[in-house]
Design brief:
Length: 202
């Protein structure tokens, strides 16, 4: 009876891992769709505005870009959180078994935490985001060129510079997998608290 109950618990945990991995994969695909859609729309809008001399559009492009990058960062934060959660469940399953059978998240985390991989990932991220960065800077250049004498220019320009700083810091945190470590600490705390409470009761 005890063995059947343990097998049922393991199966529940395995189902949870599969569900969270499917969600993780869907969110990664969603990020790719966001990036490709934003780039396509940006090139169309940027080219049309430049061709037709509709310079007011340049005021909106940085905000549009910042919103897209923020959405990508939000999805990446959830992906890291899912990875940390899966890692904990894998440990739970392994605790029921005589050996470490599930180690995907552990291995992936160790690989992605190495300096060489982080440098490669950071470089690839920069290459992927480079077109957006160029459009962002080019838009700021046109805003400064065309609207520098307008009353709202200092406020708009300052706002977009703040956007750049916030997004840059966010990317730096994600690039060093700090979000993953934070998520793991929270997940471990959540799982360990009931055990500590139970020990106190005993």
């Amino acid at each position: 009876m005890l063995e059947n109950k343990r097998l049922d618990e393991i199966q529940i945990l395995l189902d949870e891992i599969n569900a969270r991995r499917n969600e993780l994969n869907l969110r990664e695909q969603f990020i790719l769709k966001i990036m490709s859609s934003f780039l396509a729309v940006l090139f169309i809008i940027f080219g049309y505005a430049f061709k037709e001399d509709i310079y007011i559009v340049f005021l909106l492009i940085p905000a549009f870009l910042a919103s897209g990058l923020s959405l990508i960062l939000h999805q990446e934060r959830i992906i890291y959180s899912l990875g940390a959660y899966i890692f904990r469940i894998e440990n739970e399953v392994n605790s029921y078994l005589s050996k470490e059978c599930l180690s995907w998240e552990k291995v992936i985390h160790e690989i992605n935490s190495t300096k060489k991989i982080q440098l490669m990932d950071g470089s690839l991220h920069f290459i992927i985001m480079f077109p957006m960065l160029v459009i962002y800077i080019y838009s700021l250049y046109y805003i400064k060129l065309i609207y520098s004498n307008e009353w709202f220019f200092p406020y708009v320009f300052s706002l977009y510079i703040v956007y750049v700083l916030i997004i840059s810091v966010s990317y730096w945190c994600l690039g060093t997998r700090r979000v993953y470590e934070w998520a793991r600490q929270i997940v471990d705390k959540y799982y360990d608290e009931p055990v500590k409470e139970g020990q106190q009761v005993d």
